[in-house]
Amino acid sequence: MACTCSHEPAPPKPDSKFRTALWIALVINLAMFGVELIGGAYAHSSALWADALDFFGDAVNYGVSLAVLGASLYWRASVALLKGLVMAGFGFIVIAKVIYAYTQGIPPEAITMGAIGVLALAANMFCAFILYAFRDGDSNMKSVWLCSRNDAIGNVAVILAAVGVFGTGSMLPDIIVAVIMAVLGLTGGYQVMKKAQQERKESSDEKQAFQSTE
């Protein structure tokens, strides 16, 4: 009788600790998206809006990561590839927002920027802390760690921008920080996509090797 079963390695059992960390990060990022979206509109801050979009993108990424836990390496890498594209896409959106803000020429409100920046930093440092243990995992785990790490760096920059705006009355610090955050999104997305492509190729090669031995 011919064997019809698949010899592809079984996907790993979902890590309950990683799942819990993802749920916590998902809730925090959705909450901060709302806070920064409203705060950014009130303060006329491109950096806060950039960070709000990043929070939303991260929440989507965490939700997708939860959906593919326990899937095969190929599908986890495929989803990570999509997430890398999203990260890079948000980088381009932020750049467009910066250009629009520059044409308007309205300086942001520094006190609101700083207060929300501190709150966002605390939220992202907590997310980065609970996801730190999974930073060296597959491309899916790496992507969620990079999201939180980039956000924490971005929040520090937002706080510094608020100080700069307060001291100079210029919108330039806000714009500079928004550009930095855009670059973080683009480079982080590239790293995730590169590793995801490698894992997809390795998974396909392994599957072909198993099929050739049947």
From TrEMBL:
- Subcellular locations according to the entry: Membrane
| Annotated InterPro entries | Cation_efflux_TM, Cation_efflux_TMD_sf, CDF/SLC30A
Look up keyword Zinc and say if it applies: yes
Molecular functions (GO terms): zinc ion transmembrane transporter activity
Task: Name the GO cellular-component terms.
Answer: plasma membrane
Key word Transport present in the record? yes
Q: Which residues cross the membrane?
A: 21-43, 55-75, 82-102, 114-132, 152-169, 175-193
Cation efflux protein transmembrane domain location is 22-196
Q: Check the record and name the SUPFAM superfamilies matching this protein.
A: Cation efflux protein transmembrane domain-like
UniProt keyword terms in alphabetical order: Ion transport, Membrane, Transmembrane, Transmembrane helix, Transport, Zinc, Zinc transport
Q: How does it sit in the membrane?
A: Multi-pass membrane protein
By what name is this protein known? Cobalt transporter
